[in-house]
Amino acid sequence: MAKGKRIKKVVLAYSGGLDTSVILPWLKERYCCEVIAFVADVGQGAGELDGIEAKALASGASRCVVADLKREFAEQYCFKMLQAGAVYEHLYLLGTSIARPLIAKAQVACARKYKADAVAHGSTGKGNDQVRFELSYMALAPELTIIAPWKDPSFELTSREAAVEYAKRHGIPIVQTARKIYSRDRNLWHISHEGGDLEDPANEPKDSLWMISVPVRKAPNTPAYVQIDFVSGVPMAVDGVKLAGHELIAKLNGLGGEHGVGQTQLVENRLVGIKSRGAYETPGGTILYEAIRALESITMDRQALAFKQTVALKYAELVYNGQYFCPLREAIDAFVASTQQNVTGSVRVKLLKGRVTVAGVASPNSLYDPQLAGFAMGEEYNPADATGFIKLFGLQMKVNALRDKRRRRQDKN
User: Fold this and answer.
1) Secondary structure element (H or E) that encloses residue 349, with its range
2) pLDDT the model gives residue 30
3) Helical H runs in 141-271?
4) CB of 49 within 8 A of CB of 66?
5) Closest residue by Cα to residue 352 from 280, 261, 264
6) Whole-model pTM above 0.85?
7) Which candidate in 41, 59, 97, 129 is catalytic?
8) Stretch 267-273: mean pLDDT, rounded?
């Protein structure tokens, strides 16, 4: 914060949990300012946002703004990431990462609407979210002051005990529950689990960990088949029923969860230099990633598909590192949109014991030609043509081999 700058109104990214519940009145005390609680509904699940407006007002907020972002989250963020094929470190489908830029964007819009001069978040100083929020604020509203209490030396509510005591003193309504074993983040795309026994990579995730999917060993022994229809890389329907983006993801979450699909755990490299172990459930996203890869395999040419794999790695890095609102991501989106023009068709997948396998794929734009792919020779493919091609394609390898042969002969002499 600029020295001497007077903060009159702050918009706080508010979840209703213990941390943001005490941060809200702390901001009022620290800056003698008005605080607006901003709540983003990105599909956290039934009950999580119940009574949140009353709670925010009771904690001292001048108003509480609840924004329903589920459809925008699905169609403008998750689906674009899906089309790009972005996966971080082979396994993480970026559920928390992709939600943060949208939340920050809506929070900034709220700040401008109510003429606030600052935005605040409750992310800690050890995680990635602080970077994702603050880079988004900087890119979208450089004129706004960013307040991050956890990095303020005067903020002393960094333990649960201190936060609970502060809440009691200030009459802040909190639900007294047992300390949670895991730290979780849930939205429409996924749910993440960290902490507890997961902090030791030697420990296998317990069956009781999973919340939106059954343990794989308890999944049905009979497979389920699901058909997803795509138009230009955008999933549009499940089993022939057209659905809005958030409804489609929710539908696949239910189907995949029943069969233990989308469970993974990894030790990932945080941007801040810490290795962190987490477990993730992404049932619907896992189904969609497998489906779109199958559809791309028959509708995209070899060069575009190969280069897109390189682009996917960069896209995942940008999302993970909080650089969503940057020119490079926008340029990659343009490239990806071009590659998706012919990615239209239907994919039938099989769900069984935690796995998604492609049962069949069809597209009116398919590049797959059964006559060319078969073993029988036809007019389109003359095997004699391959002779010259192979000679030229392997010429450099032959030249290398002849050079090495001459060198060995010289060494002997």
Assistant:
1) strand 345-352
2) 95
3) 160-169, 245-258
4) yes
5) 261
6) yes
7) 129
8) 93
Residue 313 C-beta-side C-alpha neighbours within 13 Å: 6
Buried b (16+ CB within 10 A) or exposed e, 7-17: bebbbbbbbbe
- Check if 19 is active-site: yes
CATH architecture observed for domain 183-300+342-362: Alpha-Beta Complex (3.90)
| Catalytic residue from among 50, 152, 169, 183 | 183
| pLDDT digits 0-9 by tens, 12-25 | 999 998 899 999 99
Kindly report, residue by residue over 162-191, the tens digit of the pLDDT: 988 998 998 888 765 556 789 999 999 999
Please report, for residues 215, 259, 350, the alpha-carbon distance to residue 218 in angstroms, rounded to integers and kept in the order given.
5, 8, 17
- Give the neighbor-by-neighbor strand order of the sheet with 234-238: 241-242, 234-238, 224-231, 345-352, 355-362
Q: Which amino acid is at 238?
A: V
Spell out the domain ranges in the chain: 9-169, 183-300+342-362
229 is catalytic: no
Given the residues 59, 100, 185, 363, the one annotated as active site: 100
User: Which residue in 311, 232, 223 sits closest to 260, CA to CA?
Assistant: 223
Enumerate the H helices of 275-364 as residue ranges. Answer: 283-299, 302-320, 327-339
Q: Find the catalytic residue in 15, 19, 136, 186.
A: 19
**CA dist., res. 266 & res. 263, Å (int):** 11
Instruction: Check residue 2 and give its pLDDT.
Output: 46
Nearest to 20 by CA among 55, 63, 70: 55
Question: Which tens digits make up the pLDDT trace of 32-90?
Answer: 999 999 999 999 986 889 999 999 999 999 999 999 999 999 999 999 999 999 999 99
Q: Can you give the length of the chain in residues? A: 413
Residue 88 has what DSSP assignment?
B
Q: Quick one: pLDDT at residue 1?
A: 47
Architecture of the 9-169 domain: 3-Layer(aba) Sandwich (3.40)
Name which of 14-18, 142-146, 214-218, 368-372 the model is least confident about.
Answer: 368-372
Pick from 45-54, 93-102, 117-126, 276-285: least confident = 45-54
